[in-house]
């Protein structure tokens, strides 16, 4: 397949309409909104870290309204059990049989709010549904609606009463996005909107249209050299010695899995698709590297002692691995 086989996307106006509707309610947060749209198009899941009050919940709820999709929110607490998420079997005295009550994960857009406030057994209840898009209850399999996106939030401030996410769970999130405070100008607009008349959100697309966009996004051409670039970036987190990054070996206990490579490629596809191109460029991938890798690296105690975080190590890797040449445009 060559770049000329895929024409530039004609879906950009529709994506702009969706973003316009979301921005009528959500002020600023352009980086966060772009990552949400990338996750939606690439059929990935999103882990969001930010202090309370930064419109994380509002963004997903507004997006669901603009896409005419079902939206469910789960507030994770220490007393949750897995059945509160996926559902359970309930005995009916009238019929003498067990009926299946499906849980809140059966929605197009699922918000797992403060996911690190629930124990690992509850967090792990999302493992099957995030990877397989299905839930098994009492041996019976139930498919979740399609398209399906999980967006989980966690609060970086409080550590009391929180539980670290299992590594297998973290790896299923395509990206981890850090949400920062708005600027003074943005906060002024936020105050105006919240204290004024409520803005209405128009449904500008449907879940069927979104499914079509996802299929078209999969047709975006990614040059083999760009795929190899993604492989090298991820491989450098596991075996830094091979890429003349031996000084990082003592800081990394475990590197990223092959899901990171897939996430980089699919993310670059989605970003190129949003920009109206039928082919991905290196810059589509490089801007996503921190978001795709930061939550997948397991740092050693030595890295923490030296004040290094995952982002600092990722930046060293990005500077070392050469970026491939741009493919010929169709």
TrEMBL record:
Keywords: ATP-binding, Nucleotide-binding. GO terms for biological process: regulation of DNA-templated transcription. The keyword ATP-binding applies. Residues 8-155 form the Sigma-54 factor interaction domain. Coiled coil: none annotated. The keyword Nucleus does not apply. InterPro entries: ATPase_AAA-3, CbbQ/NirQ/NorQ/GpvN, ChlI/MoxR_AAA_lid, P-loop_NTPase, Sigma_54_int. Signal peptide: none annotated. PANTHER family: MAGNESIUM-CHELATASE SUBUNIT CHLD, MOXR FAMILY PROTEIN. Belongs to the MoxR family. This is MoxR-like ATPase.
């Amino acid at each position: 397949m060559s770049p000329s086989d895929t024409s530039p996307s004609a879906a950009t106006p529709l994506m702009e309409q969706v973003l316009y509707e979301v921005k009528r309610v959500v002020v600023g947060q352009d980086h966060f909104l772009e990552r949400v749209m990338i996750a939606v198009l690439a059929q990935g899941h999103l882990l969001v870290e930010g202090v309370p009050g930064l419109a994380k919940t509002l963004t997903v709820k507004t997006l669901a309204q603009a896409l005419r999709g079902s939206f469910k929110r789960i507030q994770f607490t220490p007393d949750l059990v897995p059945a509160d998420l996926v559902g359970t079997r309930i005995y009916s005295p009238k019929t003498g049989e067990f009926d299946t009550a499906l849980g809140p994960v059966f929605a197009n857009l699922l918000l797992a709010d403060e996911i690190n406030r629930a124990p690992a057994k509850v967090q792990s209840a999302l493992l099957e549904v995030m990877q397989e898009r299905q839930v098994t209850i009492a041996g019976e399999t139930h498919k979740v609606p399609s398209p399906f996106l999980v967006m989980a939030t966690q609060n970086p401030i409080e550590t009391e009463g929180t539980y670290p996410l299992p590594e297998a769970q973290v790896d299923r999130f395509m990206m981890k996005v850090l949400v920062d405070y708005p600027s003074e100008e943005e906060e002024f607009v936020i105050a105006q909107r919240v204290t004024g008349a409520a803005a209405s959100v128009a449904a500008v697309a449907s879940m069927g249209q979104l499914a079509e966009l996802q299929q078209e996004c999969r047709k975006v051409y990614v040059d083999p050299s760009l795929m190899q670039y993604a492989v090298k970036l991820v491989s450098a987190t596991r075996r830094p010695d091979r890429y003349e990054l031996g000084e990082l070996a003592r800081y990394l206990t475990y590197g990223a899995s092959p899901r990171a490579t897939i996430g980089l490629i699919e993310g670059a596809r989605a970003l190129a698709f949003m920009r109206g191109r039928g082919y991905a460029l290196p810059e589509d991938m490089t801007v996503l590297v921190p978001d795709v890798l930061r939550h997948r690296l397991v740092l050693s105690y030595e890295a923490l002692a030296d004040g290094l975080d995952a982002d600092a190590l990722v930046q060293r890797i990005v500077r070392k691995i050469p970026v491939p040449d741009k493919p010929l445009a169709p």
